[in-house]
């Protein structure tokens, strides 16, 4: 914007003094506010010890956790037994007992090759492990006491007391000990997502499963293939689809039943709390304070309380949502009732209607869309918060999430549940928005 | 009300009108009945499911509901205040249950902050810091999500999706991942609550921006102001009161959120609360509940007062807005 002349400037200054002569707060309020905020953030940086915490954080671990979200690890222990190398799988059953694994090849002399990359592999015998990194071999000698690496080690190999650690990056890592080699081999994607190795359908991918449903021989003569595919998928022991879906269902049920009950109870109570409908001031005041009380005790506290009463599961979740939402919805409803147009009530009174009829025909039609829309709104937001109260013991997928995170190794399952939650939340958001906009028009929300 | 039951004696057009009205009412009632029946069936099925999935059955457990409270009667009401202010307890028997004094946080000499109040300060600070961080980022993002400022381009679409994901992403997962990396402490809680705040406030903010009066913007456009100047001088002054009001509302919600995150490993009062409930420390539990209630009511009242001064009484929903 170009400059203006001095005369013009003084004319404007005279005409609009309030624009040019602001008081201190108007002129400096923004920078002062920003300054205070900045000082406060700096204070918090030290108050919460952010610097040292970030420094001491195990960020390499974070990278591994995040890799676990989208990848899968095979973790065999290759044990040395009587001159032979024998793979032993963890209890999660990652491969069936006699599987033909393309990256782990046994040889006739009892030795074994674990391939990580074209140039990276392990040649394992019981007295010596050849580690190939970028095509160069580093022989590790195995004695009854320790695994000893050669002197000139590359950065990917570390001698850690009596064991040798090898890091192949994303492809995996190995830990060479005197009696076994512990191998972690990482693959992109979620393995065994459809069926676990003990299932008769193991090895089928999505398309072959669909093919199996619509054509093909019965795998199990007692069941149809569709039933079989569903049962095996839900019963997947590694991924626990059945359990996770049941827990997700619990979360949805908690939000639905809790909000619905809260709506049903808050609806009549709000008429008592509304000053224009119930003319008794004491009753209004008592009802409003009851709502305040129900609302101000947090959902978390209600959840903990009811978990003690009913034991973990969806009932405490329902009760917690019901109690807090009765308070919240009651308040909103009472406010809506106090804002109704009096003309319709007067019209009803003028034709001699009973108090019940006045409310039924003079008030309810005005507020019903607002009530339903508010309840839908709470339903939607409770679908989200029910995940969290699950974590303090109120059942639902929150508990499952916390369990999976607690093990620190099931991050792929965490990712799976998060995706499910995101999907369900979006779905319910859209359903509730669609109903709301049909009720009260698309403009308001 | 007029008696509508007898169409006899009406003119043919009125009778037709009446018949039409009745059929409309009939269809409407059918829909209502179907709707109610559907909701009831869903409710019944849901409750059945909930009861079956719960570890204690509803009707069996109802008589024992208040056992928890009975177990939690402190030996003497004063005990609650001793716990709250870390005073010495006459019941001290060497166990943690009545050991209050060892939890004091000394500042200088004999001056100390009681542990629960210290934890509460941490929790409230977590809430304020995450509102500042999340609100600041939401403020920067919201102008890119508003149709009236950026049109309906890919930028708007991406920003809105980012906000949606932040809003719906379970906070405990972010907190859990960060506690695994940084060990238990408030930073995980701050990160989790901040991310959620970006999504929740961002949505409210861009809706305010979309409702802003565009005339000042046109005025600035007509003198050749660029996009940044138009946003700064035409939009921001209009929306600021509403933004601040929503941010205050969010601070309230975030105090609750950081309490919950604390209970799953984010530090602060939520964590000591969970521990004291788990270990049946009656007086301590009551002390924390009372402290939490006082805090939440105070913040409610203060921010309600401030919001009324900023935007007046209108647009005053309870503001679980995009919680």
TrEMBL record, chain A:
Looking up CDD domains in the UniProt record yields: TM_PBP2
Keywords linked to the UniProt accession: Membrane, Transmembrane, Transmembrane helix, Transport
Highest taxon listed in the record's lineage: Bacteria
Protein's membrane topology: Multi-pass membrane protein
Domain named ABC transmembrane type-1: residues: 248-432
Which Gene3D superfamilies does this UniProt record tie to the protein? MetI-like
Q: Tell me where it resides.
A: Cell membrane
Signal sequence segment? none
Which InterPro entries does the protein's record reference?
MetI-like, MetI-like_sf, PhnE/PtxC
Give the family per the record.
Answer: Belongs to the binding-protein-dependent transport system permease family.
Q: What is this protein called?
A: Phosphonate ABC transporter, permease protein PhnE
From TrEMBL, chain B:
Q: What is its main location?
A: membrane
Is-annotated flag, keyword Transport?
yes
Q: What CDD domains does this protein's entry cite?
A: TM_PBP2
Q: Can you give the residue ranges of the ABC transmembrane type-1 domain? A: 120-303
Q: What subcellular compartments does it reside in?
A: Cell membrane
Q: What does the record say about its membrane topology? A: Multi-pass membrane protein
Membrane-crossing residue ranges in chain numbering: 30-50, 120-151, 172-195, 285-306
Which Pfam families does UniProt cross-reference here?
A: BPD_transp_1
Which keywords describe this protein according to UniProt? Cell membrane, Membrane, Transmembrane, Transmembrane helix, Transport
UniProt-listed PROSITE patterns: ABC_TM1
Q: Hey, which family's this protein in? A: Belongs to the binding-protein-dependent transport system permease family.
Q: What is this protein called?
A: Phosphonate ABC transporter, permease protein PhnE
Supply the source organism for this entry: Devosia yakushimensis
Q: Which gene encodes it?
A: phnE_1
